[in-house]
Design brief:
About 70% of the residues lie in helices and about 0% in strands. By secondary structure, the protein is mainly α. It has one domain.
């Protein structure tokens, strides 16, 4: 299970990072209210966005809500699955922090 998470999460996060770095000049022009923006006002908002992206990834992968809730019981008690989930959030947060110039502006 955790290998699947790595296979999906890492390339996706890398793709986002490449898109961000390829458009560094355009980052300043991004509308902060845009739903597709990685730009946030604070690191706390960025972390919440990372969590939201991670959740969206899960619900996009498992579209059957009944199965999603059945599986939640199993992975919520699996330390490896919980660590993998934290890693996915951390990768998203790393990408968001880079997009926001680590909130140094």
């Amino acid at each position: 299970m955790k290998n699947i998470i790595y296979i999906v999460a890492i390339p996706f996060s890398m793709l986002i990072a490449v898109m961000v770095y390829a458009n560094v000049e355009e980052t300043e022009k991004v509308n902060v209210s845009s739903e597709l923006s990685l730009i946030t006002k604070t690191p706390e908002d960025g972390f919440q966005l990372a969590i939201d992206l991670s959740r969206k990834g899960v619900t996009s992968t498992q579209t059957d809500r009944e199965v999603l809730f059945i599986l939640r019981e199993a992975y919520s008690k699996d330390p490896d699955a919980l660590i993998a989930s934290s890693q996915v959030i951390a990768i998203h947060f790393q990408t968001i922090a880079a997009a926001n110039n680590y909130w140094r502006d």
